[in-house]
Amino acid sequence: MNKLQAMEVFVQVVDAGGFTRAAENMKLPKATVSTLIQSLETSLAAKLLHRTTRHVSVTADGAAYYERCLRILSDVREAEESLSRTRLSPSGRLRVDAPTGLASEVIVPALPDFFERYPDIQLELGASDRTVDLVEEGVDCAVRGGQLGDSSLIARRVGILHFVTCATPGYLQRYGRPAHPNDLLRHRCVNYFSSRTGKIFDWDFTRDGERVQVALPGLIAVNDTNSYTAAGLAGLGIVQMPNFLMEPMIKDGRFEIILNDWISDALPVHVVYPQNRHLSAKVRVFVEWIAELFSNHPAMRLPKGPPRTASTEITI
Asked: What CDD domains would the database entry show (predicted)?
């Protein structure tokens, strides 16, 4: 038995909450994962996991051993990196998740630069507006827009999203142009709902100290950026979207800005990763590259301010 491999498999099983998910994340046969765990328990003369047909949980011995495995594996990786070229040229498989719009319009077009810098990294980029469970799904880090909920993740703020309210010329010709956010109550709007909770998000507007936040009527609600854009272009209603996505369609006349003297709340963009996972060289360089990418994007760079006394990385 390769003890280090068995430790890595054990940590993956605990993180993923099961043998099947761990096997998928490590690209190993499930039988191999099961055999390694059994061999590890035999060599330790201790039961590390409680197994049922539907659930895997950690024993008291397993919990203590898990914490030690994390430290040992972290030390091994740091030792390997200190004696190899990975600090200068990180390598290996990197799994990243990002919202659909940010992935297709910002991250993917810039990837040639990333691969020119780090040619030995194999990137697996998941693009969806669903909030993935990084630990359970074996994702190294994720780019997320919006306010972050409570979790055990480390977050680094890298950018900001500004929103504009728009409609197609055909819609405005048919239904008229609203002059005040309250006028939207008499219009059709394309709503967006959370894929996690199913809740439809309110719309918000601010002007000269006046704030309006309201749930708006609509024939359709979606939870994907591409579908949201398509619904707006089909004339199904007014949309409110990040300006970096809308700008090309405003320039070519597919959308027109409405209520442009009103401002909607901006949303932060973070890179997040599990705090109990060793921040490998490949994750570190990707996080730094994303931060640089957003800092050079005119629509999403963070406003300049006084230097922070604390780290830009926070636990959420």
From this structure: PBP2_CrgA_like_3
Is pLDDT above 60 for 315? no
Distances (CA, A) of 11 to 21, 67, 314: 12, 9, 24
Contact 16, 49 (CB under 8 A): no
Query: Which of 258, 276, 306 delimits the end of a domain?
Result: 258
CA 139 and chain centroid, separation: 10
Largest CA distance in the chain: 76
In angstroms, the CA 239 to CA 231 distance is: 9
Task: State whether 145 and 170 are in the same domain.
Answer: no
206 with 263: CB under 8 angstroms?
yes
Interval 71-82: pLDDT, tens: 888 778 767 665
CA distance readout (Å), 19 to 22, 34, 70, 119:
5, 7, 18, 32
- Supply the range of the domain harboring residue 216: 163-258
Same domain, residue pair 168 and 116: no
Determine the Cα–Cα distance for residues 15 and 126; give it in Å rounded to an integer: 19
* Cα(92)–Cα(26) distance, integer angstroms: 12
